[in-house]
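> forwarded from #structure-qc
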């Protein structure tokens, strides 16, 4: 990465604020997203987590950590890989870079191609571009739930292995 663009990116992340993140994802939006995740998980065996980060820590932004690398690290840090059926899914949103990545556990990754996940990410980024953070995220959660329902239908009542409430970093 060229130095001027690396500096611009680091500064963009440094000056991203919690207020901007809360405007994009206010409490009522987080509540609706939580409800959509909870309802969806009743119809499949997957576990869905949404992590929204206002911006990378400065050291990571300066080091050139990509959105995908950060998503993989958070997937591990939050134990999303640690589900009984290996079917955890992370939807990671980086507001400073305006990027979305989806990381799926190995049980899911074998059945759902990367291009399908990219389509879900595109739903979000296109909506975000119009300022429709809540609607775009709910649409993406619905898409993820439908994919999981198709490939990992619920076999009846099961424990909720991961919290449903989005994480705001």
């Amino acid at each position: 990465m060229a130095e001027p663009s690396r500096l611009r990116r680091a500064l963009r992340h440094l000056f991203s604020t919690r207020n901007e993140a809360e405007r994009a994802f206010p409490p009522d939006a987080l509540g609706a997203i939580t409800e959509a995740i909870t309802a969806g998980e009743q119809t499949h065996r997957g576990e869905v987590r949404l992590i929204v980060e206002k911006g990378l820590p400065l050291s990571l932004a300066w080091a050139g950590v990509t959105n995908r690398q950060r998503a993989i690290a958070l997937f591990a840090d939050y134990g999303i890989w640690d589900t009984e059926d290996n079917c955890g899914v992370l939807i990671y949103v980086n507001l400073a870079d305006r990027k979305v990545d989806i990381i799926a556990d190995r049980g899911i990754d074998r059945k759902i191609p990367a291009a399908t996940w990219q389509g879900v990410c595109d739903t979000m980024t296109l909506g975000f571009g119009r300022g429709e953070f809540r609607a775009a995220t709910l649409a993406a959660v619905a898409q993820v739930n439908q994919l999981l329902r198709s490939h990992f239908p619920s076999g009846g009542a099961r424990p909720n292995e991961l919290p449903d409430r989005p994480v705001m970093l």
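QC bot note: DSSP finds eight helices and four strands in the chain. The two ends are 25 Å apart (CA to CA).
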